Automatic annotation (TrEMBL):
Principal location: cytoplasm
Protein name: Glycerol-3-phosphate dehydrogenase [NAD(P)+]
InterPro entries found in the cross-reference section: 6-PGluconate_DH-like_C_sf, 6PGD_dom2, G3P_DH_NAD-dep, G3P_DH_NAD-dep_C, G3P_DH_NAD-dep_N, NAD(P)-bd_dom_sf
Organism domain of life: Bacteria
Pathway: Membrane lipid metabolism; glycerophospholipid metabolism
Protein EC: 1.1.1.94
Lineage: Bacteria, Pseudomonadati, Pseudomonadota, Alphaproteobacteria, Caulobacterales
Enzyme active site: 191 (proton acceptor)
Amino acid sequence: MTQIRTAGVIGAGAWGTALAQVCARSGLKTTLQAREPEVVESIGTRGVNEAFLPGVRLDPAIEITAELSGLAHCDIVLAVPPAQHVRSTLTAFAPYARPGLPVVLCSKGIERGSLKLMTEVLAETLPEARAAVLSGPSFAGEVARGLPTAVTLACEDQTLAGELAQALANSLFRPYLADDLIGAEAGGALKNVLAIACGISEGRGLGRSAHAALITRGFSEMTRFAVALGGKAETVAGLCGLGDLVLTCSSPQSRNMSVGLALGQGQSLEQALSGKRSVAEGVESAPAVRDLARRLGVETPICEGVAAILSGEAGVDTVIEGLLNRPLKSEREA
């Protein structure tokens, strides 16, 4: 029987709000922290996150707070700020985090500049925390509305992993356990970049064959990248890698794919991001993925191409032409 009774969620974007729903449905006393005053007011008075998850009625048991100190009592904390803000957010939360607190990292990306994974950022900001990673195919709106979802929950301490899974699981949300945090993180980081590529292909009208090829070759990049970091290929072949990749690359409901779709249709990056309040993590992660892959000596031509398009170094058609004219080689090669 798990001793986890209370959960705190840092970050009330769409995904953080959906995870607060999961916690509440699983019977945990749940506190959701939001930094935006309008989100606190919207959830507190109307029970809806109108800014990030409109139209979804939230469990009335969810408590909303603007203060990170409001999570000091929680048995577990789910950290869900945008990846590029994880360091500053956890640094601000540090005074309220007790030693040994389980922190479930739910943000997907690689920190620009340092090129560090979120677990590395956690180790530097909350060194006494016990880390876990939650990742997998999960659209926030579907999870929040209670549609069936399965994810990977990675934690080196398998006893803790079992306790976390038992605490978070319900009939609509099923965590599968893994012990490979690096593999889980690598899958989540690269799938957002690859989703932009698939959106560009869709926007250019390149067809379903090209779309399938991008997913397949993108999965090869993801696997090479994860293994070079020290992760396991079998982890990436699961929900947190292949599963998340298929979902994110298959629907404009994905924020990252929708950005790519706009780019493929000829919009600038500024136009593609205009009016979008939710973060498309792949836009921020693409240059970090490219730089880290180069440091590791791993070929990631699709991710390289996306980073070049986003930075303005190359146009969409130039990148497509370059990918199609790479030297012929075995499918097992990069």
